[in-house]
TrEMBL record:
4Fe-4S in keyword set: no
Gene Ontology CC entries for this record: cytosol
Organism of origin: Candidatus Magnetobacterium bavaricum
Protein name in the entry: Fe-S oxidoreductase
Cofactor(s) this protein cannot do without: [4Fe-4S] cluster
UniProt keyword Metal-binding present: yes
PANTHER family named among the record's database cross-references: ANAEROBIC MAGNESIUM-PROTOPORPHYRIN IX MONOMETHYL ESTER CYCLASE-RELATED, SLR0320 PROTEIN
Keywords associated with the record: Iron, Iron-sulfur, Metal-binding, S-adenosyl-L-methionine
Classification via InterPro entries: BchE-like, Elp3/MiaA/NifB-like_rSAM, Methyltransferase_Class_B, rSAM, rSAM_horseshoe, rSAM_sf
Record-annotated membrane-spanning stretches: none
Length: 413
């Protein structure tokens, strides 16, 4: 493809656990087109831009700003003069790594236009919550109202102020997506109903425009009420993800979650009453965690009428306060970024809670929830077509291989 397209610039996205593989894109691009300009985007690059550039001589530019779109446009315009682009680290003619001034915030998100949904490889986007196909991803807000210590959103994109697209612009994108033949969406906003007035206008607009798309989203348990849940259902919502992380008050305080278990229980009840599935995000291993607190969380989840849960291992992402905490207290076991994955063994260990214990309870809790006979029966009875059956069976087989048939302490292999 590189030979055929012969690009002048290659942009590529990165994450912490994939950074080593991501940088191979820059290497491959340089091998095919030595003069090509390689640009890395992503939260790992934002946290460690200089380290990333030093680790690969094939990387020309690292975008450190959260305003990736503006920086990318400036890179294209100033490709021969990178010093004129704000929000980047670049390598000058002497090989020195230089930082430019910061990129100003984009106040009018409508100016960004729409992503190229028409160029998406549709076969790639499917997950256990998918009910119709093909599916794409949309986003109406930047930043987050939350300030969780483990999350990239407040660390890199700001909190608690969020910036929102106009409802008119967002609805125009959804209509275009429908016209392209997509059947389902994922709203990729951190908290779709953060501004409940804005969200209400969005859902009413979808209903009044007769947009035939079903969708899933994430939000907070304290940012919904019966009225907005009814609107969400009418607008096509089928699954809502809610972050709980833990039921232990010490853990919740340490990570600045500011959500109570009773709020989660109430939110799930509201959703299930309207026929909306729920996914509860939980994590094992945050500061203050004990065996007892983990067991309390697992017990709570089993009593909760939620459709899905996650119980991943805490990952100290570079740039977050959680990472600073484990690093400053010498709890980190490795800086092999490929291991910074919630599906692998922990990369840290506490004096009173070992990495082996954290790994064990993550797998144990998932088995306790998903292997209950009553849960399996309920899921089977909820299947409405062969497409859903295939998705469910594929996910279930993958679950069995990872959490039942394998040793939880050998996940890194």
């Amino acid at each position: 493809m590189l030979k055929r397209e012969a690009p002048h610039i290659v942009f590529f996205s990165t994450s912490t656990c994939t950074i080593d593989k991501d940088l191979l894109i820059a290497k491959a691009a340089k091998e095919v087109i030595p003069s090509v300009i390689t640009v890395a985007i992503g939260t790992h690059v934002m946290a460690l831009p200089e380290d990333t550039m030093r680790s690969s001589g094939c990387l020309d530019i690292a975008i450190y700003t959260g305003e990736w779109e503006s920086a990318s446009l400036e890179i294209v315009k100033n490709s021969m003069n990178p010093e004129k682009t704000r929000g980047i680290f670049y390598r000058n003619s002497n090989g020195d790594i230089i930082k430019t001034d910061s990129q100003p915030l984009i106040t009018n998100l409508d100016l960004l236009g729409f992503p190229s949904h028409d160029k998406i490889e549709r076969a790639l986007y499917r997950d256990p919550t998918t009910k119709r196909f093909p599916k794409t991803i949309v986003m109406g807000q930047k930043a987050c109202i939350n300030n969780c210590s483990f999350c990239c959103q407040p660390a890199f994109f700001g909190a608690p102020t969020i910036r929102k697209r106009s409802i008119e612009s967002f609805l125009d994108e959804l209509k275009w997506v429908e016209a392209l033949g997509f059947k389902e969406l994922m709203f990729n906003d951190a908290t779709l109903t953060a501004d409940m007035e804005w969200a209400t206008s969005l859902f009413e607009g979808m209903i009044n425009s007769n947009i035939d798309l079903i969708w899933n989203c994430s939000t907070r348990a304290d940012r919904i009420n019966p009225e907005i849940v009814k609107l969400m259902k009418r607008a096509g919502c089928h699954t809502v993800a809610l972050g709980m992380e833990s039921v232990d008050s010490v853990v919740l305080k340490n990570i600045r979650k500011q959500i109570r278990p009773d709020q989660i229980k109430n939110a799930v009840s509201l959703m299930r009453k309207e026929g909306i599935d729920t996914l509860i995000f939980c994590v094992v291993g945050f500061p203050g965690e004990t065996e007892e607190s983990i067991k309390k969380t697992i017990s709570f989840l089993k009593d909760l009428d939620t459709t899905f849960i996650t119980l991943g291992i805490a990952v100290p992402t570079p740039g977050t306060d959680f990472y600073k905490y484990v690093e400053e207290n010498n709890y980190l076991l490795t800086k092999d970024w490929s291991l910074y994955d919630p599906m692998k063994k922990p990369v840290f260990s506490y004096p009173d809670l070992s990495d082996e214990q954290i790994g064990y309870y993550s797998a144990y809790g998932l088995r306790q929830f998903y292997l209950r006979p009553e849960y399996i029966l309920k899921r089977l009875l909820s299947i409405k077509n062969l497409n859903q059956l295939g998705t469910y069976l594929k996910s279930f087989v993958g679950f069995l291989r990872r959490y039942v048939l394998s040793d939880p302490n050998n996940r890194n292999r």
